[in-house]
Specification:
Distance between the termini: 23 Å
Oligomer: single chain
Radius of gyration: 25 Å
Structural class: mainly alpha
Largest sheet: none
Amino acid sequence: MSDRSSLQREVDAAYTVQVRAATKPKQELSALGFVTFAHYAWPLFRRQTLPFKAFLISGFTIAGLVIGADNALLTHEAERRQSEHAIRREARIDLARRGLVGTETEIAKWRAERTRKMEERANDGNPL
């Protein structure tokens, strides 16, 4: 597997996380609830025109969707960094036990070797 294909998979996964978070209906409902509450609780707001109220609903909804999607993406990126850091730490420790310095090249080789070993274990358990 090349680095480009794995990078593209990571980008696609991040995009999927962001789209899922943005399509949740909770932000739209909260904006609609806010406007409904303001209509009944605030007489000045009640006198506003329908297009202005629609503008407020769309503004709050878009802001909520963008902020929610961004928060989901930041959470996803933090989880990816944590898992990547754990793998790199494991690689550096294993390479140090072998007497090698954990450079980027050595870590990439270690990762490829680890992936190959995991695939061999998975294939050994499955009779063909």
